[in-house]
Amino acid sequence: MTQTVPSPTVPAAFVSLAHQLADAAGAVIRQYFRTPVAIDDKADESPVTIADRQAEQVMRDLVQANFPDHGIIGEEHGSLNGEAEWVWVFDPIDGTKAFITGKPSFGTLICLLHRGTPVLGVLDQPITRERWIGVDGQGTTLNGAPLRVRACDAVEKAALYSTDPSMFKGDAWPAYQRLAETVKLRRFGSDCYAYGLLAAGFVDLVCEADLKLYDFAALIPIIREAGGLVTDWQGQAPGIGSDGRILAAGDARCHAQALARLQDAG
User: Fold this and answer.
1) Among candidates 209, 9, 219, which has minimal Cα distance to 111?
2) Between β-strands 71-74 and 78-80, what pairing exists: parallel, antiparallel or unpaired?
3) How far apart are CA 115 and CA 113, in angstroms?
4) The domain over range 12-146 is classified in CATH as 3.20.20.70
5) Does the annotation place 29 within a ligand binding site?
6) CATH classification code of 155-262
7) 210 is in an annotated binding site
């Protein structure tokens, strides 16, 4: 399965801004990592800290200062001009539970949508200083070095990552179990970092559920431009109206077989 994106060339100024956004968010996050920060619970009972809120705010301020006509969708501070042609999507700390327990598997996710399609994605790990960036038609890099996914022609050979078993609710759990029982290796506790490892050729599948747009949008260009693909559990490109069930793969053959397991068709 091939994902195509009919979009204009992403302007260099937008790519430059994406790096500035990651730099600014990282500077905030490093101040608070492994310090006794206060933890609040949001309405969905997920945790949030001052680091999440401040990191998103500095990114929003930079976008508004540089491209005031662009829209913004953020996990912590909501939507602004979300119908614009170009919209930035922020998850300042994807993996807040990892962050508050001192584990550097979290990341800052930055996506640029063009008319609703992800065309630029950044995954920045501010503690290990690793930065993945995928730009439509320009490939994916990790700290400037080009990346490619690895070949995996059979799901039985695959290494599978997911963040937490609790994300698979209702009928998602038996579907996930069918896949997990088939793969060679499965691991939990990865947050967004697993998608970076997939793009770098160390992981074959990432299967998750209960995600929001800001949890997955940035990861689509990163994996796609490294030669992989990201779909929902029906094999369709996930977007703003996604049900939050995501399957990422480095190899289309493995992806097709994994979809069959999720759909109880193989």
Assistant:
1) 219
2) antiparallel
3) 6
4) no
5) no
6) 3.40.190.80
7) no
| Band of pLDDT at residue 44, cut at 50, 70 and 90 | low
Which one, of 251, 156, 138, 252, lies nearest residue 201 by Cα? 251
Cβ neighbour number for residue 79 with a 10 Å cutoff: 12
93 is in an annotated binding site: yes
pLDDT of residue 49: 87
Laid out side by side, the sheet with 159-161 consists of 185-187, 159-161, 205-208, 246-249, 229-232
**Per-residue pLDDT reduced to its tens digit, 169-216:** 999 999 999 999 999 999 999 899 999 999 999 999 999 999 999 999
Q: Is 75 labelled a binding residue? A: yes
Ordered by start, the domain boundaries in the chain are 12-146, 155-262
- Residue 36: band (very low, low, confident or very high) from pLDDT cuts 50, 70, 90: confident
Question: Is 243 annotated among the ligand-binding residues?
Answer: no
Place of tokens 């080009």: 146
Altogether, the residues listed in the chain come to a count of 266
